Amino acid sequence: QVQLVESGGGLVQAGGSLRLSCAASGRTFSSYAMGWFRQAPGKEREFVAAISWSGGSTYYADSVRGRFTISRDNAKNTVYLQMNSLKPEDTAVYYCNSHKDFGLAYRPAEYRYWGQGTQVTVSS
Fold first, then answer.
1. What is the side-by-side order of every strand in the sheet holding 118-123?
2. Contact at 8 Å (CB) between 78 and 34?
3. How many Å separate Cα 60 from the centre of its chain?
4. Comparing C-alpha atoms, which of 106, 117, 122 is closest to residue 59?
5. What is the DSSP letter of 67?
6. What does the DSSP 8-state code read for residue 15?
7. DSSP 62
8. What is the pLDDT at residue 31?
9. How many whole angstroms separate alpha carbon 118 and alpha carbon 83?
10. pLDDT tens per residue across span 18-63
């Protein structure tokens, strides 16, 4: 089990950028694939991006591909989500989570526990 804390959210105008961070505590971080998810009020949690434990493989939701970039620094136990060209539709609470299997990491149902996330609000 890994404890995760998201940060970096805030208020930004459409077209702006934010960089989210996900800091992990524990000694198993490097063994896990990591995923970013988001949830808007009244909507289900949805997949945003995932990265393999080595950082060699990534996968993105169609809605963010080309605008968002996921990366990780295992030495710092941190995963990042660089968010560019933000749209009002990106407004949500963003969460990170860990998974043993990169091939399943895109599925919100694979995760039982979630942190508080970090709020991203994009104004128009």
1. 10-13, 118-123, 92-99, 33-39, 46-51, 58-60
2. no
3. 10
4. 106
5. T
6. T
7. T
8. 83
9. 13
10. 999 999 887 667 788 999 999 999 999 999 999 998 889 999 999 9
Contact assessment for residue 18 and residue 10, using Cβ atoms and an 8 Å cutoff: yes
Tokens for 10, please give them: 């805030």
Taking the chain, what is the end-to-end CA distance rounded to the nearest angstrom?
39
Q: How far is the CA of 98 from the CAs of 17, 47, 67, 68, 110, in angstroms?
A: 24, 13, 22, 19, 10
Which residue has 């080595």 as its token pair?
Answer: 54
Pairing of strands 10-13, 118-123: parallel
Summarize the chain as % helix, strand, coil (round to 5). 10, 50, 40
Other C-beta atoms lying within 10 Å of the C-beta of residue 69? 17
